[in-house]
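Here is one chain, start to finish.
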Amino acid sequence: MLLRSSSIAFGAAVFCCLALNANGQDEKRPATKRSTDAKVNVDGKKTREGASVNLMLHRATEINGMKVRNSANKELGTIKDIVIDVRPGFVKYAALSYGGFLGLGDKLFAVPWDAMQHHHDASSGDAYFVLDIDEATLKRSPGFDDSKWPDFANPQFEGKLDTFYEKFRKPHAGLTVTTPRVETKVDVKANNTTARDDKSAERLMLRASTIMGMKVRNEAQKELGKVNDLVIEVQPGKIRYAALSYGGFLGLGDKLFAVPWKAFEVRHDISQKETSLVLNVDEATLRKATGFDKNKWPNFADPSITNELDKYYGVTDRSATRTTEGAILRDGKDR
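Its structure:
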């Protein structure tokens, strides 16, 4: 009887010691911390436990020609061009061609950028936009001829479009764009710039196809090169970078050079009706810049690349939007 009681007591003591030891280990074990940092793979795929959290980027030349479908996955048409509010660098409208769908003929139809949602077919790798609009509304859409584009900076025209598509628009969370209505006049002969702050002054709204080939100069008005393409963060429609071709300037060869859009100053010569970009960097900085082959674009969703670019040109942009779709900016040749 005494032996049995002693055994029970001994067992209880061992159990208590084990329990205390386990509790002690739990107290010393650091709590598991779930990381919320979004890391981007070079190929723009899965980044963190079961989720793809990358930037969603496209070149302007990829967006032009991209298909547009409705919510039933029925193809409506294609994007003919995009209209950009140049100074802040935001896409405002997409000009759609419905290709005779619903008897709409050969006209183009301007749709607010935030009325469309970007989609990516993971199985095929294809990207497209969805315009969730009914056919009756589509038939009443205000169109225009390809040979006669409207003035998108006209407040009346802009207001008409925004009102028509109001219930279909889905502004991106946390995105606020303030555009100063300032018209800049450049006197080339005097080599100076005058600006007038006028609430009625028109904003500078240009098509992406117009920006392609736009001249880039330095502060001394010396031509450096031209815009080859634009890298656009799709969700807010924000231009992140312009890919420049210096055309052999300073012996830089045929490579392209990505420059943050914020590094440019937009100049518009009213008398000549010419818009150009001014890049205020010295020749030494241009020579040392890292370029890339036109057939092998870098992955601009990789923060190690973009942070280095922003730092090199002295700009800061922390407003990049993260998405669960992943970056699908293509490497290699144009499609």
